[in-house]
Design brief:
Rossmann fold; 768 residues; 28 strands; globular; 15% strand
Length: 768
């Protein structure tokens, strides 16, 4: 897709180099030079993949480049049609975080953003409030966001002939990963709101509860037992062969019921008092505590019954047998728990192209993170080559003469998106498109299978800036409404399987008949650029964490553990979907033939990417497990008198810090020239950034139609020095129905009839 695009990569940051990999994987000519700071490491095999090595002096001549990637405020003479990508830590002019260097330690960013405190499922109640992570979440997210922004700038250049200066903040990259963890929402009906946290289980004394927590903290097996009774259909179980199998249905009512029916335990669960009633029925609030359709409210007794039955049954077959049975039979999302090393060598991952073996590379690598039907078959990824052998077809930079067109304020202005997604990855893919200026129609089902926390609560972030309609697409009238939207669509975004897309009439072949220009952006669980054995298997973020090795990296022995329920994989996958979509759009507009495309990514591709630094060597012991503290005995987490800090020290600071306040300890370390930061929780970060002092991190409340939500302002996009001043407006589910239908040509009488027939529902699933 980017054949003929010439990129000069001067960046030494992981984010800048990753952006270069993403473009090289899609055909761009990326030239780099081996310089101090990037030579001689095994990870270079991946970060230089598909690029061309040049003499450092040659990179100073930027006149032939379409895109120049640099770090910080490095000087660049930019022609009007060129695009400069600058990787920074904070946005320029940030009064709070501006002291951070562009290439500062990833650990300083992770500590600041709450990535050491809000990533583990039960860590806080088990006395582990701070756990180090070696995953470079901020830099990986920033690299993907940078690629999306540059793709948008290329789209803008096609329209106007003008380039842009794009600034991508690594701190903002991490921020884009934690929205759901910081989100607050008020104004929803009680049955749609987040239930209050559970306290001490009924029938258990406080002393008994604390004893249970002590046991779980001391033993991985007991922690696993406890987690089974916290999320019984969302954690791994031990199978007959001793391996663990991750089962994930908890947030999906239909999948949970299918699982219980398939295993033959629903009758026993009903005898125990459990029910299955839609949580979108206001009267269902009286059933909280025993309603499997509202799992976040299940009481400890109900969850214990479910967990006990599952423990007994799962122990009767191997993990591989359960994965095939549950996923192959479309019963439930399930995945064997593997290490990252096992995943990189997994035959099915290799078949799908999710992992690859490069001639000359010391180990297998992760494959492309996104792929287009129009680019198939892709050439195999290759190691870096000398610039002298750049293929001839890559030496031609497209002409970009300036035009009389007024440059678009945002790259996707005038682009229409039909959003058919749910949960996190898909909705945040189209949310990112809305942030870039697209008009997004979000289509919600009249009887959602996912819980209200997923649709209504998280939707206050992921649905911001969109128009929302609740539409029964199983009816003839509903299909007609959908098809009228599809006729207008540049993008259709879905996180459905191939079979589900066919049933809904939004598979690539059907879309080409309805609207040949439409680009289908499909986000799946296990698909790769080629057909593999797990193709079309269902899945969620935790299942992707299980199969790619993330859960084994962070859990204690006997208890593979989540690493962030809403930040490690899901959001990244959504942003990779936006990258795939914008790549397909650029290819369509550049060809000028109006022909659409089929752009894809998957959760397992995203989960692999977030671990990219660990492809060639495992993290040291101090960076793994539930007691991980840092990369060395001195560069690590330290406990202060009133909190925690992370310090990059050459000596042990335990005695110097333990009796000081965080503020005093940081001040003392600054005078010694030791880099250190406060370790925040996500909540502390958000609450502290309502002041508006930071240009990079701003936590802002927006109210509309009685709905108030607080979340971070999207500072991950900065074009020509301009970044968003505020969040986009949150919209109640279904609140835009009349507006959408009028745009589609329906009369007021026609709209009333659609509502009377139940084809279109009122705001937040009210029937009219």
């Amino acid at each position: 897709p980017y054949g003929g695009i010439h990129i000069i990569e001067r960046s030494l940051t992981l984010s800048g180099r990753l952006a270069g990999v993403l473009f090289a994987d899609q055909g761009a000519e990326v030239r780099f030079a081996r310089q101090p700071g990037r030579a001689g490491e095994q990870i270079d095999d991946y970060l230089d993949r598909g690029k061309f090595e040049a003499d450092p002096a040659a990179l100073r001549d930027t006149l032939s480049a379409d895109i120049i990637i640099v770090d910080g405020d490095a000087p660049v003479d930019r022609r009007p049609d060129q695009i400069v990508l600058r990787i920074t830590a904070a946005l320029p002019g940030d009064e709070v975080y501006g002291y951070l260097k562009a290439d500062c330690s990833e650990d300083l960013l992770s500590a600041t953003l709450g990535l050491f405190t809000d990533m583990a499922l039960t860590a806080r109640v088990l006395g582990r409030p701070v756990i180090y992570t070696p995953l470079p979440i901020s830099s990986v997210y920033a690299g993907v966001n940078a690629a999306v922004a540059v793709a948008g700038a290329l789209q803008r250049r096609l329209q106007s002939g003008l380039g842009s200066e794009v600034i991508t903040s690594r701190l903002a990259g991490g921020l884009s990963a934690i929205g759901a963890l910081a989100l607050t929402t008020t104004g929803l009906a009680p049955h749609l709101s987040t239930p209050p946290p559970a306290g001490v289980p009924a029938g258990m004394t406080l002393e008994q509860f604390f004893d249970l927590l002590k046991e779980a903290a001391a033993s991985g097996e007991r922690q696993s037992w406890l987690e089974h009774r916290v999320i019984p259909v969302g954690v791994p179980y031990r199978a007959a062969d001793g391996r663990m199998i991750m089962i994930m249905t908890g947030a999906n009512r239909r999948a949970t019921r299918k699982l219980f029916d398939h295993l033959g335990i629903w009758g026993r669960l009903k005898e125990a008092g459990l029910v299955d009633v839609s949580p979108y029925d206001p009267s269902s609030i009286a059933l909280r505590g025993r309603n499997i359709a509202d799992p976040g409210t299940l009481n400890f007794a109900s969850m214990s019954v479910i967990a006990g039955l599952l423990e007994e049954i799962i122990a009767t077959k191997t993990a591989a047998e359960w994965e095939t049975e549950f996923c192959g039979g479309r019963i439930a999302a399930a995945a064997q728990v593997m290490s990252y090393e096992e995943w990189l060598h997994d035959p099915e991952a290799r078949r799908a192209g999710l992992t690859v073996a490069l001639p000359g590379s010391s180990k297998p690598q992760i494959g492309r993170s996104a792929w287009l039907a129009s680019a198939q078959p892709y050439p195999p990824p290759r190691m870096a080559s000398p610039a002298a052998i750049v293929p001839a077809h890559l030496n031609t930079t497209p002409a970009n003469a300036a035009t009389d067109s007024i440059p678009l304020e945002k790259p996707l202005q005038g682009i229409t998106v039909v959003d058919l997604t749910n949960v996190i990855a898909g909705p945040n893919c189209s949310r990112m498109m809305a942030e870039l200026g697209a008009t997004v129609y979000r289509v919600e089902q009249p009887a959602p299978y996912h819980v209200p926390v997923v649709t209504a609560v998280w939707g206050a972030e992921s649905g911001a800036g969109k128009q929302s309609i609740i539409l029964d697409t199983n009816t003839a009238d509903g299909k007609e409404v959908l098809n009228k939207m599809l006729v207008r669509a540049d993008f259709v975004v879905t996180n459905k399987t191939d079979a589900q897309c066919v049933r809904l009439g939004v598979d690539a072949d059907t879309l080409q008949r309805i609207n040949p220009k439409t680009i289908l952006v499909q986000i799946t669980a296990h698909n790769g650029e080629r057909y593999g054995g797990r193709h079309d298997y269902p899945g969620y973020d935790p299942a992707a964490q299980a199969i790619t090795g993330i859960m084994l990296r962070f859990g204690p022995e006997g208890c593979p553990t989540y690493h962030g329920l809403a930040s490690c994989v899901d959001y990244l996958c959504g942003y990779l979907g936006a990258w795939a979509g914008l790549t397909a759009l650029y290819a369509r507009e550049r060809r000028g033939d109006g022909r659409g495309d089929w752009a894809q990514t998957s959760l397992t591709a995203a989960a692999s990417l977030t671990q990219l630094l660990l492809q060639f060597q495992e993290a040291p012991a101090g960076m793994r497990g539930p007691l991980a503290s840092g990369p060395s005995a001195t560069k690590r987490i330290y406990k202060a008198a009133d909190g925690w800090i992370f310090a990059l020290s050459q000596t042990d600071l335990t005695k110097a810090v333990e009796k000081e306040t965080v503020e005093k300890a940081l001040a003392d370390l600054k005078t010694q020239g030791i880099e250190a930061v406060r370790i925040n929780t996500v909540r502390e970060l958000a609450d502290g950034r309502r002041d508006g002092l930071s240009r990079t991190i701003r936590f802002q409340a927006i109210s509309h139609d009685g709905l108030t939500s607080e979340c971070f302002v999207p500072s991950w996009f900065c074009f020509n020095g301009v970044t968003a001043e505020s969040r986009q407006i949150p919209v109640r589910m279904g609140a835009s129905a009349d507006e959408i239908l009028k745009e589609l040509g329906y009369s007021q009488d026609g709209i009333v009839r659609l509502k009377q027939r139940g084809v279109v529902l009122g705001t937040e699933w009210r029937r009219e």
